[in-house]
Specification:
Helix 4 crosses helix 6. The protein contains nine helices and eight strands. The strands form two sheets. A five-stranded mixed β-sheet has the order 6-5-4-7-8. The two termini are 27 Å apart. The protein is of the alpha/beta class. The longest helix is centred in the C-terminal third of the chain and has 24 residues.
Length: 238
């Protein structure tokens, strides 16, 4: 409800009367087939919803709900480019999981998708553990981000920077090895990387030599933007 209220305010759409809401939502690809209908039912309401947010009263009616696969939605803006590609893989590297989905000529193949326990929180924990045990240094996630994303390794010293860089590259290599075990060879297809984890590890991904054509979606809110884009295509054709 709070997110809906924020969106209403951002669009300048607030009124004191009943406000109709069209909601675009998503699920990880591995859960989409089995859960999308129940997920839609959970959000859709026949009766108005009344709530207060920041001392303001809201009256809304969720009239339409559409559900889309995450990762596919994040790459939605690139589907025109991928429509003629026989095989492309979308890899969404998040905090807890790395979700992948195969595209065939721009169409989602839900028989080839899964959620792997290879999110970047695992990487953060590995780095913090190694830094503590090997160098007797306590690192936070912000320190790791500063070294990997912001190029501030020199501020932490050579040993710390080298440890973080090595663990990051090993994390990327492990992820690609897991995908290869699932018969997904990234060297021979286009791979669309989305999610905060992919942005954090872009340099390691590009330097791994294990991805034929890496493409990056840098919008951290790409899934949400994709839900809206796909909903507009489906309902109003624009």
């Amino acid at each position: 409800m709070f997110a809906i209220a924020e969106e209403i305010e951002a669009q300048g759409a607030y009124t004191s009367g009943l406000m109709p809401i069209d909601l675009a939502i998503g699920l990880p690809p591995a859960h989409f087939g089995a859960q999308n209908k129940a997920f839609v039912r959970y959000f859709k309401r026949k009766e108005p919803i009344y709530f207060s947010y920041r001392d303001k009263l809201y009256s809304i009616l969720i009239r339409n709900v559409q559900c889309y696969p995450q990762a596919f939605a994040a790459a939605a803006m690139m589907l025109g480019e991928l429509a003629t590609v026989p095989r492309a893989l979308i890899l969404d590297v998040g905090g807890f999981t790395a979700d992948y989905l195969l595209l065939k000529n721009g169409r989602a193949d839900l028989s080839t998708c899964d959620s792997l326990e290879n999110g970047v929180i695992l990487l953060y924990n590995r780095i913090r553990s190694k830094a503590s045990s090997d160098l007797d240094i306590l690192l936070e996630e912000t320190d790791v981000d500063a070294i990997l994303l912001q190029g501030q390794g020199s501020s932490y010293g050579e040993e710390v920077a080298a440890l973080v860089e090595y663990q990051a590259q090993e994390f990327v290599n492990d992820l690609f090895s897991t995908l290869r075990e699932r018969m997904l060879d990234l060297r021979y297809c286009k791979v669309v990387f989305v999610g905060g984890g992919a942005i954090l590890l872009r340099r390691q991904i590009e330097e791994s030599g294990k991805v034929g054509t890496p493409l990056f979606v840098t919008n951290i809110n790409a899934n949400a933007a994709g839900f809206e884009y796909l909903y507009r295509l489906e309902t109003v054709g624009r």
